[in-house]
Amino acid sequence: MAERRLFSRIGLQAKAWLVDGAGHNHHTLVRDLSLHGALAVVDEGWAGQNGDEFDLVLDLDGHGQRIIMHTSQRHHHGVCIGLECRRMDIDSAAHLRRLVELNLGNDELLQRQFAQLVDED
């Protein structure tokens, strides 16, 4: 069965960290990002379970501009985990929107994806 994605992914190799409910930081590498979530690389001994919640913190410029997504782990395969975005603050949403816009190069597609995101709630 062919996979049909509703949200375009942006390929990245960006350092980030996951913050668990106890406040522990876990360094990670974000491989791709979308309006709906992220694919992240974790250590081989990753103990997170599907459904666990984390804040994904992605530093954009080293000067305080960040995307912070409250996420839940959806899947874990090898050293990669899929994170579903549950919510984010308005500044993070604006940064993510701009990043997606620059990578898609298609404002109409971006508008459709934002509409889809709103319809899911």
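Above is the first protein from milestone M3; the second protein from the same milestone is given next.
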Amino acid sequence: MYAIVRDRGMQYRVEEGQALDIALLDAEPGSEIELGDVLLIGGEQPRVGTPTVDGAKVVATVLGTTKGDKIVVFRYKNKKRYRRRTGHRQEYTRVSISKIIVDADEQHVTGSTEGETNGA
């Protein structure tokens, strides 16, 4: 099962156990956070929100902070001896998706059905 979540203007496709880099948060490593709005729950029976899925939540555990790749910004003006080279590294918060909750009444629902017997 997967979910599409919107968090501060960005949309992410997440699954349980996945590590994800999101925009920097002021959260301590080891704390649990709830990611923004759940737009879609996918799987065998997908649920599409209008605009969000009611009662659905994605809970993530904060692993720490990390930095992205360096971006080089180079400005140049022809025939004027003007050159400026600067760089930038964006900071991110790395989170691990721990639960995808479909309904507030149902607790933690995974891709497999729990409590099934072998029919014996």
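Note on the second protein: Residues 112-120 have pLDDT under 50 and may be disordered.
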